[in-house]
């Protein structure tokens, strides 16, 4: 079995246990985004990109226990890939995470592409759907007019506080377009960002609340 096909088979077993916001359909969309962005970039390694996309959420702390913290290591060991490829893929995974605004630098073209591809799936129509899917799975409010979105927070604060779903737009999603790393990512993010702003404006009108 080829490396990508084997990796896909192994990660599906993990993502099938996650809710709809981070299931394998999310991975498929991110892969589609990534390969599209890669087609416009110079010297991007598609195999590295696909491996990083497939593995980037398997150890997501929102879902895994301490035992699953290094799930990507367990999967990578079964792929028979080089040490260089392994380190590259793991570095990309580390660079993808938002971490409450404390992300590390994406210092390769593959890392920039995967980060942009993942963040594109966090905004726009799909991003809105995913936000409320996750919020519903975690029992969060749709919105809370008493909450003040945080501008400065630690990675731990970002992950631990159970804020309403709409608050998440202001703490993360509306910030993502400005942080896109590739030309194509920036272009694609503009329309998706505008759609989120329109959604929030409609929500304010329908609820009569200053959300």
From TrEMBL:
It holds the Pfam family HD. It comes from the Bacteria. InterPro entries: HD/PDEase_dom, HD_domain. Residues 19-132 form the HD/PDEase domain. SUPFAM superfamilies: HD-domain/PDEase-like (SSF109604). Coiled coil: none annotated. This is HD domain-containing protein. It comes from Psychrobacillus faecigallinarum.
């Amino acid at each position: 079995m080829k490396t990508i096909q084997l990796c896909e088979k192994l990660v599906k077993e993990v993502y099938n246990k996650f809710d709809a916001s981070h299931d394998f359909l999310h991975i498929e969309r991110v892969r589609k985004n990534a390969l599209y962005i890669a087609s416009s970039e110079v010297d991007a390694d598609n195999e590295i990109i696909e491996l990083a996309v497939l593995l980037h959420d398997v150890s997501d702390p929102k879902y895994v226990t301490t035992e699953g913290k290094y799930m990507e290591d367990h999967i990578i060991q079964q792929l028979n890939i080089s040490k260089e490829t392994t380190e590259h893929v793991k570095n990309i995974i580390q660079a993808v995470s938002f971490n409450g605004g404390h992300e590390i630098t994406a210092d390769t073209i593959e890392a920039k592409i995967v980060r942009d591809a993942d963040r594109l799936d966090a905004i726009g129509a799909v991003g809105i759907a995913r936000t409320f899917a996750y919020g519903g799975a975690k029992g969060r409010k749709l919105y809370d007019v008493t909450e003040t979105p945080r501008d400065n927070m630690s990675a731990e604060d970002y992950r631990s506080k159970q804020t309403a779903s709409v608050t998440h737009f202001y703490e993360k999603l509306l910030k993502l377009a400005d942080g896109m790393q590739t030309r194509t990512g920036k272009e694609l993010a503009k329309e998706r960002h505008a759609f989120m702003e329109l959604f929030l404006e409609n929500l304010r009108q329908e609820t009569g609340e200053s959300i």
